Structures are given as structure tokens and as C-alpha cells.
């Protein structure tokens, strides 16, 4: 639209340029009515004739059209309508050398909203296993009931109905929590964020699992905290002997652990280890921030306990959410902040004031009226099968030397590629074949997991086997390219 | 329930104690079914007979009851059912000497969810002026349509539909924004929080209006930022001459201003002042964080411009929300972070990942399909009338020497009491008469506004005149008590 770069000497040409710019960026789309001449005139303190002249200029250029008795409308033009529907170019053509971890995380997360991609990237649950329609209907019913109207204020802690249901779920994980002490958050991310702000100051050192969920790294990075990686045993989670010796050598302000089905490993810390860890940290007065987002998705008979169940003095901050097992998009998490409860309430007010009420009420009603345990049993069985299938499929199609995790819960698998394969190259190649995945770079502060990838095994479609095969082929190609150098 | 303090020597007694505790804290309420004996046995790794014995102990004590073929249920008991419905005692009996500003803010905000109180405290809009039912119905329709299911992931930036509508509103305030650059937030609070984190580090100095909205002080406090108070002219907002001289003397990292209808003063910075301020700050490379939450509630003919409309190089971060003029409870705000956009996107992911989609879609549909400008006109007229009425009423009923603001927009009034009246005493006395208000302590870091109060004039009922009269009488009593000392 270079014809619209007008000299700014005339007021009407400046206005015409502004309006054209707004049309170009999609603020006003083809068919939309533009603000009335009078409205613009008053707002911008321009004369009616200046605004008219601006609109007529745009009309002359074929950008807008006047409709009698109605006003000015944006004309249909190829350019303007294509701009919004095209997939974003920025997701593609990633260059390893230009990588910034924060950007890479966002790209992988943004891939999750691209309907055309095979979703091995973000840890998205399987739609068909979730009571999505039922939850939406409950939300709709709550909204229509008028019990809560949109102007109403909530409290920093959230709806008592949901806090009661959350405490019931926690009771089945061994923790007796007081609903009055719980705080509803915008997903588990906000819970982790608030927990870390409550117990740490910028520059502090926080012990984390290695590998760990990239969301935890992002929160640490955004708060200016440093990470101390504690290696994980592939079946038992964080190595307590190493943790202990690190705590003796460094001033650690907090420990963050996904105790049940750690992401990406899928391993579960044995309950007796949790007990030991809670006692060790309590003795040293170092808070444990426990993320139990996968706890209910155990493949075995028994839902493992939370470390919080061994806590005697409020030293464990438990962070949970319904994102993995019910409704990621509702953004409803919750936390018990132990002895930092008052501080976390203050921080919640200063971060988001309160969380939307209707999603909380819909979830509370669903949890109260049942069906959750039934849905969970189905999820557990299915995810156990799908992670096993995908693991087998990876071993079948990927280059020799590839190894896969065999998780005890959750729905992701962790794949170790031959050393020659860089996971960022594979991510890039995968994208150009329409497949997204989570490169290993995301799971530690350094490039320690350069040749690892995490695959989401939750979503299974007719494309799944093909996509794994394709990735395996691409990995093989990257390997031989590397060998030929 | 002292009979339930059992010796812990027996496993079943320990379990009985735990279950009784959960009943006492309302996790399981009268009539609720308790987890099955088998479930508890598996979870807690106790024998079936131990769990049965625990349940039977509680049955013997009349706490729970067995129903044939169905399980164990909590019995109806006076105690347990009263616990949740009672108003919280903690809101009352506030002691001035024990005050912590953070707690006081939370108390005033929590008052807003107490249905029994006359709401002069938090800046709640008037329910009857808002399209509450329509918005809830739109939300319900969006939910039922299944267009977005609860398991779906959103992007850090939010729904394009809403961002386009937000850019249109901004265009009417003089700013041409690119919807692709906007970020949807959990209310304006999250927007301010993200903006301050993007441009400041803990310990930095931030210039703010004096008096200012307490939410801004809370965000500053929670981020470890220091505040530099710039006095406000009662009709023109922040004094630019004083700002300038302060910027010469101190290292200020950011300026935060509610440019249109500053809260609590209700004054509007003249557009030419905004222009000057933007130029001054751009020259000095100090970012302006503009909070325009009240901009659409102008009493005059014309909606004032945003300072962002004078910005040429992305130095102004504009923070807005639909909380005051549409739906406080939806928690939907938005921001244009200027040259900090990429940084703010990263911070958004690390703070709350993304915002719930359905409230965004409902708001976008409402804004698209119209009725908003009509509703706004009604709000403006009504709030102009109500703030004037309440101001007159205060002058009529409060002790001589009381002064009130006369706002040009928004819906709060700022009241200067005679020096003898402490606003915290008046808050306390008001509460015991069933009236909440915002004491002046909240509006500056120090006790500078000790004898000021902010009154919300939006909500008018048959009690309003009585409540103002009552407060005036209480203020008079406090005054004479002070004089007699």
C-alpha cells in the first residue's frame, strides 16, 4: 500500500494514512463500518470537512466505500483478508544460532494453537478423554443462572466451592488441607510464580530436577533466580543423595520438584523418598515447592501421595491445577502455600487481583457431581497404552542408539537421540513436515539435553504412526549429514 | 469437637482424627459421601479393617453415618453447617496500630464480596448499568457452541478477535495500535505488573501520582520497587513541572499515571499535558506506563485521548481493561507494551501462560455486535449525576471543614475530612454500621492521606443517603472524641 504513504502536510492526508494503517493491520476488516465522520471529528478535534476529505481520499483509492444513509465501510481486498488467516511465518525457519530460550519456549507453545500441525510438542491432553462438552455446558449453565454476574468481585483466594473440592482431591493424595487456606490461581504457572516470589529474592539459587519442565525454567528466568540442577534417577526422580550434598555446599533458597510423574521423565518419586525429602528440607528450613499437576494420572493402581502429606510445619508449598486432567483452557490452578499463605495472598492481589469466578464454579460443580474418577480411570488406562505404543514406535523408526523413557504416569515420553542429532535441527525439520515437538534444549538451563526430545503421546490420530516414522527418517538424515561433514 | 483429639497410637484413631478434621474444615460437608473404605485403604495403604474401624469410631461419635449399599456420609450437625455461611470475623475489629498496608488493602477488597455491606469501598461499577446478563449469555453461547473446548491451548497474546476490538477502542482514544502487538492480560492488574517487571528491577524508583490507586502501590510493593510521589493538581492530574524537576534530581526508571480520571481524584490530564509528558519522557528515555481503565467513562462530550496517542517510539506502555465499563469478573485486560512487547510476552508466559479464552470471545462478540457505546453513554450520564449527588450529600452530612472532589469521569469521589478524623477509625466505625469505604492510608506509601477517604459513588440504593449520613455522624463523633482528649 505504498500509495498511502502521504505527505503529512495536510491534516486530512495524515488522517487518511492513519485509517489506512488501521485497515492494513486488521483493526477494521473488509465489510466493517468505520467510525462515523462526526465521531472522528469530535475525538480527533478535526473539522467535519477534514474527516470527510480523508474518507473521500480513501474512497478514491478504493480502500473504503460510502454506503448511503449508513456510513463508510472497508472494501473487500485480497490483501487485507489474507493477513489474518495465514499461519504465522515466524514459527517456521528457526535458526539455531539465533536462539533465545524464551523465544523457543514461546514458539513451541504457539505451535499448540496451530491446527495444521501434528501435536507432539506442548503437553496437550487428549480431547476425547476429557469431559469438554460437559464442562462447557456447566460453564454455560452457571453463566445463564445469573448466580454470578460479570461485574461481581471475587476474593484473592477464589471460590470456596472449588477450594473444598480441591481439598477433597488432596485428601485422596494423603494431604489434609484446610480449604480456607487454599488460593485459586490462574493455572499452575501462576501458583509456581507466586510460590517462588514468596520464598525467594532475585539472585537466589533454586534446586530443580534435571531434566525439568521448561515452564519452571521460564518462571525462574523471569524472576532472576538461578537454577541448581539435581540429576533425576530415571524411575525415582530427584536424587536425594545429590540434593543433600548440594544443600551442604550451596545456599539454596528453595527446591522445586514435580514429585509425581516428573515432566519430561514421567518417573515418580517413591513415597518414602518424599518423606525423607520433606524431613531433610524441614530440618534445613528450605521450602519445598511441589508441583503435582500429573499426580492423578498414575498408570498403576494407586494414586501416589504428595510430599505435602508428610509436611508437619507448613514447609511444603503444594501447587496443582486441573489443566492436565480436566480443562487447560479454564486456567484454574490452586495452591496451599503452607506458612507463606498470607504472603501469597498479598502477591496474588498484586499480580492478578482475583481469578475469574465462572470457570471455578463450573469445575466445582463437575467435581461435586461426579464422573471425575471415572474419567480419570479412562485417562490412566489410555495414556499408559499410548505412551507405551509411542515408545515402541520411536524405537522402531528412529536411528539405532535411540532410547526412550517408560513413564509411570502422565502422557509424555522422553527420547534420547544419537549424539549426532541436534534436537533443534529436528524441531526445524519436523515443522517443515507439519510436526511439532519439544527440543531438549528447553528442559535445562544449558544445552545438556541437546540431543533429547520430548514427545507428547496423549493425542493419537491416524497421522501419529506416520509422523513418528517421518521424524525417525528426518533424525536419520540429520545423523548422516553430520557424519558426512 | 474436643472428643476427637485421639491418641495417635492406633492407626485407625489417627485416620478417624484426620477425617474428623476434614469434616470440621468443611472439606466434607453434612450430607456428603466420604471416600469409600476401599479407596481410602488403597490410598493410605491401610488395611480395610483399619479404615472400617476409623469410620465406625466416627459413626459411634455421631459424626458420620453408614447408609446401606451406599457408604459413609457426614451427618448433619449445627456446627459444621454454620461455619461456611457466617461472615468472616477477620474483616471486623481492625486495630490501627497493627496495620500493614497490604492487609488493609485485602480487607477493603474482601469487603466487596460481603453482600451485607453498603459498598463505598472498592471501585465497583453499578450492576444495573452493565450488560451483565447479555455478557453472561454470550459467554454461555460461546461455551455451548463448542468452538473452543476446555482442553484447548491459547497463545500468550490472547484471542485475535478481542485484540482487534481493543485496537478499535484505542483508535477512538487517538492511538493507532497494531492488534498483532497487543497482549491480553488477567485484568489491568496483570498488565501493570507485567509492564513494571519489563522496565524495572527491584530497588528501582518509579514516579507515581499522589494520591494514587492502591493497586499500583501493591504492585510496586510486591516487586520491591520504590515510589516517588508526584503531587496532582486537583483538575489536571500529575504536576509536570514537579515531575520534571524530580526527574532531574532522581534516577527514575518509569512513570506510572492514570492519565484519564485518575483514581481517587477523578481529574483528567489535559491532552496537551499528555503530549508534553510523552515528549519529556521520550527525551529522557524513561518509559511511561499509562493506565487508562477509566478513559471511556468521561462525563464530558469527548472521550479524552490516551498519552499513547502522542508516542512516536514505543516509549509508552498502555494498560487497559474492561473491568470498569463491562465485566470486572471476567478478568480481561490488555496492553500495548511498545518496545517492550517481546519481553512482556515472555513474562506473560512465565506468569500465567495464557488467559482463559471464553471470556475473551464473549467480550469480543459483544464489542463487535454493538451496544457498547450506548451503554457507555448511559454510564457516563449516570455516574456524572451520582458523583455529584454523593458529593453534595457528603457536604451536607459531614462535619464542617470537609471537602470533596468533583470528578470529570469515573465513579469515585475523594473526601478530605477535618484533620481530627482518622480515616482508619472511620473505616472501622463504618464497618460496624455495615458500611465499607477506602481509607486514605491506601492511596500513598506514607500516611499522607490519613484524614482522607475515597467513596465509591457508582452503586446507588435506598441505603445510600442513610449511609452517607451515618458516616458523617460517625466522623463528627470521632472528631469530638479527639477534641475532648
How far the N terminus sits from the C terminus of chain A, by CA atoms, comes to 46 Å
| Average pLDDT taken over every residue of chain A | 90
What is the makeup of the main sheet of chain A? 8 strands, mixed
Low-confidence runs of at least 5 consecutive residues of chain A: 1-8, 78-99
Q: Work out the helicity level of chain A.
A: 40-55%
User: What would you call the structural class of chain A?
Assistant: alpha/beta
Categorize the overall geometry of chain A.
globular
According to DSSP, the number of beta strands of chain A is 15
Oligomer: homodimer
Largest interface: A-B, 102 and 102 residues
Strand order of the largest sheet of chain A: 4-11-10-9-8-5-6-7
Computed Rg of chain A: 26 Å
Total DSSP helices of chain A: 17
Taken as a percent bin, the fraction of beta residues of chain A is 5-15%
Amino acid at each position: 500500500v505504498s500509495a498511502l504513504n502521504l505527505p503529512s502536510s495536510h491534516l486530512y492526508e495524515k488522517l487518511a494514512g492513519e485509517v489506512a494503517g488501521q485497515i492494513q493491520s486488521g483493526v477494521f476488516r473488509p465489510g466493517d463500518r468505520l467510525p462515523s465522520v462526526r465521531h472522528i471529528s469530535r475525538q480527533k478535534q478535526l473539522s467535519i470537512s477534514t474527516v470527510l476529505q480523508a474518507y473521500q481520499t480513501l474512497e478514491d483509492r478504493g480502500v473504503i466505500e460510502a454506503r448511503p444513509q449508513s456510513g463508510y465501510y472497508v472494501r473487500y481486498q485480497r490483501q487485507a483478508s489474507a493477513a489474518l488467516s495465514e499461519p504465522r511465518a515466524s514459527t517456521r525457519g528457526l535458526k539455531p544460532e539465533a536462539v533465545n530460550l524464551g523465544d523457543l519456549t514461546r514458539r513451541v507453545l504457539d505451535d499448540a494453537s496451530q491446527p495444521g500441525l501434528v501435536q507432539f510438542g506442548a503437553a496437550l491432553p487428549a480431547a476425547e478423554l476429557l469431559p469438554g462438552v460437559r464442562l462447557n455446558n456447566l460453564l454455560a449453565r452457571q453463566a445463564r443462572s445469573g448466580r454470578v454476574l460479570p461485574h461481581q468481585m471475587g476474593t484473592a483466594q477464589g471460590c470456596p466451592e472449588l477450594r473444598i473440592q480441591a481439598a477433597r482431591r488432596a485428601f485422596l493424595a494423603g494431604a489434609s488441607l484446610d480449604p480456607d487456606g487454599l488460593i485459586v490461581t490462574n493455572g499452575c504457572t501462576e501458583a509456581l510464580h507466586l510460590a517462588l516470589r514468596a520464598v525467594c529474592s532475585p539472585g537466589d539459587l533454586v534446586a530443580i530436577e534435571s531434566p525439568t519442565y521448561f515452564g519452571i525454567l521460564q518462571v525462574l528466568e523471569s524472576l532472576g533466580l538461578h537454577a541448581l540442577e539435581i540429576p533425576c534417577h530415571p524411575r525415582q526422580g530427584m536424587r536425594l543423595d545429590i540434593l543433600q550434598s548440594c544443600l551442604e555446599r550451596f545456599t539454596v533458597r528453595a527446591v522445586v520438584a514435580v514429585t509425581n510423574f516428573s515432566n519430561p521423565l514421567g518417573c515418580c518419586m517413591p513415597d518414602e523418598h518424599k518423606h525423607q525429602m520433606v524431613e531433610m528440607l524441614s530440618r534445613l528450613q528450605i521450602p519445598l515447592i511441589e508441583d503435582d499437576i500429573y499426580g492423578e494420572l498414575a498408570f498403576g493402581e494407586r494414586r501416589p501421595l504428595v510430599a505435602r502429606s508428610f509436611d508437619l510445619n507448613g514447609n511444603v508449598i503444594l501447587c496443582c491445577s486441573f489443566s492436565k486432567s480436566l480443562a487447560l483452557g479454564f486456567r484454574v490452578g490452586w495452591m496451599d502455600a503452607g506458612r507463606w499463605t498470607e504472603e501469597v495472598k498479598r502477591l496474588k492481589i498484586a499480580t492478578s487481583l482475583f481469578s475469574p469466578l465462572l470457570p471455578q464454579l463450573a469445575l466445582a460443580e463437575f467435581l461435586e457431581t461426579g464422573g471425575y474418577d471415572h474419567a480419570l480411570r479412562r485417562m490412566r488406562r489410555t495414556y499408559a497404552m499410548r505412551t507405551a505404543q509411542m515408545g515402541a514406535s520411536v524405537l522402531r523408526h528412529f536411528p539405532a542408539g535411540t532410547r526412550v523413557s517408560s513413564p509411570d504416569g502422565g502422557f509424555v515420553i522422553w527420547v534420547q537421540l544419537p549424539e549426532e542429532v541436534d534436537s533443534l535441527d529436528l524441531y526445524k525439520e519436523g515443522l517443515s513436515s507439519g510436526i511439532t515437538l519439544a527440543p531438549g534444549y528447553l528442559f535445562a538451563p544449558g544445552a545438556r539435553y541437546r540431543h533429547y526430545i520430548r514427545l507428547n503421546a496423549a493425542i493419537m490420530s491416524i497421522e501419529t504412526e506416520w509422523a513418528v516414522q517421518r521424524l525417525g527418517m528426518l533424525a536419520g538424515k540429520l545423523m548422516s549429514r553430520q557424519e558426512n561433514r
